[in-house]
Amino acid sequence: MDSHLTVLLALTAVWLAAGWLADGLPRMHRARALRRRTGWVLALTLAGLALTAAVLGAGLSSAGATVADRAAAGLTLAVAPALVVAACTVRRVRRLGAGAAALASTPETPAPYGLRASAAHPLIGLPVQVTGLAILPAVAAASAPEPLFGPGVTGPAITLGVLAVVAIGVRHALRHSRLVERAAPTSPRAAGALHV
After folding, report:
1. Using CA atoms in the order 138, 143, 147, 150, what is the torsion angle rounded to 10 degrees?
2. Domain ranges of the chain
3. How far apart are the C-alpha atoms of 173 and 125, rounded to whole Å?
4. CA-CA distance, 52 to 45, in Å (whole number)?
5. Cβ distance 138 to 146 under 8 Å?
6. How many CB atoms lie within 10 A of CB 137?
7. What is the spatial distance between Cα 89 and Cα 123, in angstroms, rounded to a whole number?
8. CA dist 164 to 110, 126, 129, 158, 170, Å?
9. What is the DSSP letter of 149?
């Protein structure tokens, strides 16, 4: 196995694990479980950012076709979503962790819908998952023989990738919207109609 493939596989594993854990944040019904899961997401996200930056830095500082250069070239698609993770996701996950920690004094404290709606925000899960998915083409190219990837495969692969990202984004947006509706207080008129 090539060394740059090992590096890309490790990065992919970290980002996909962070994305999988981030996807499960809104399903945490207890504040303590939400706080614990948020800590894991934050740790894996920061590790993914640090490893990505280290590989890119090593690739930029070395000359020639070294392992670092080949691994850094494979991260071209992942740079933009990783920047969104650094700019938006890390801050949101920290705030989510602080909110869950404030409620996690006892093990059975339920996580309110407002906190779960914040956990379902598309800027938490989507950029992390897209970053992991953006490394997969480089892993596939590094691990497959040359004849499998030609000019005829590029167009359908890009289309499939874009459709996957759109589907993930729509799923996050719908789940966030549903939890925001549950968290919204009922209007005084509706509450008055229910009060007898």
Report:
1. -10
2. 3-194
3. 10
4. 10
5. no
6. 18
7. 6
8. 33, 11, 11, 10, 10
9. -
Q: Alpha carbon 171 to chain centroid distance? A: 13
- What is the pLDDT confidence band of residue 76, given thresholds at 50, 70 and 90? confident
- Main-chain dihedrals φ then ψ at residue 144, nearest 5 degrees: -100, 155
Q: Residue 81: which pLDDT band, with cuts at 50, 70 and 90?
A: very high
Torsional sign, CA 156, 158, 160, 163 = negative
Q: Which of 116-120, 145-149, 153-157 has the lowest mean pLDDT?
A: 145-149
Predicted TM-score (pTM) of this structure: 0.83
Dihedral over alpha carbons 98, 37, 87, 91 (to 10 degrees): 0
Q: Which two tokens stand for residue 108?
A: 């059975």
Q: Is the pLDDT of residue 69 over 60?
A: yes
Per residue, the 3-state secondary structure of 104-128, as one string, reads CCCCCCECCHHHHHHHCCHHHHHHH
Residue found under tokens 């996957």: 164
* Burial class of residue 28, CB neighbours in 10 A (0-12, 13-18, 19+): buried
Task: At 89, list the tokens.
Answer: 């996701």
pLDDT of residue 130: 93
